[in-house]
Amino acid sequence: MKNIAIFASGTGSNAERIIQHFEEHKAIKVALVVSNKPTAGVLEMASKNGVPTEIINREEFNENKGFLEKLSTKSIDFIVLAGFLWLVPRYLVQAYPNRIVNIHPALLPKYGGKGMYGMNVHKAVKAAGDKKSGPTIHFVNEHYDEGNIIFQVNTEILESDSPSEIAAKVLKLEHQYFPIVIEKVVTDLP
Prior knowledge:
Number of helices: 7
CATH class of the domain at 2-104 and 136-149 and 174-187: Alpha Beta
Distance between the termini: 12 Å
CATH topology of the domain at 2-104 and 136-149 and 174-187: Rossmann fold
């Protein structure tokens, strides 16, 4: 059994899709949800789905390798960032090489980097007049949104689409593809 930890900072709609996808899976289990926000909706959603949760603070996450021990006690094999807004520290990337993935709500390398998350991304896509947008799933390295791309899918953006409408189109694709891509990557792990 491969155990996944999902890191999230918000409501957790992608986390919920992932938990549901692996609910009856024979080889992959969501074993932990980690959040940096004690009031994040993802924590309540995880509890309702019977998934243990962990709240972390910045000091513990960035400087204390004791966090690795917490992941180890849960036998975490793979980490999924699903709307997690902190940069993953080097020690964690090194402990989980090619075992941390992120979903970004734009077609990287466009609209990536620090501060490019959520509605900021969709406003930038609208302002640029792009005709397509969509999520990118990529491995995580020590820099925001620069890890190797695993998967991208796009949707047409109409000139009349607002940033909120672009966000809804991209989120629909995230929910459709993120769990499937995670399953493929985790299944291919040695």
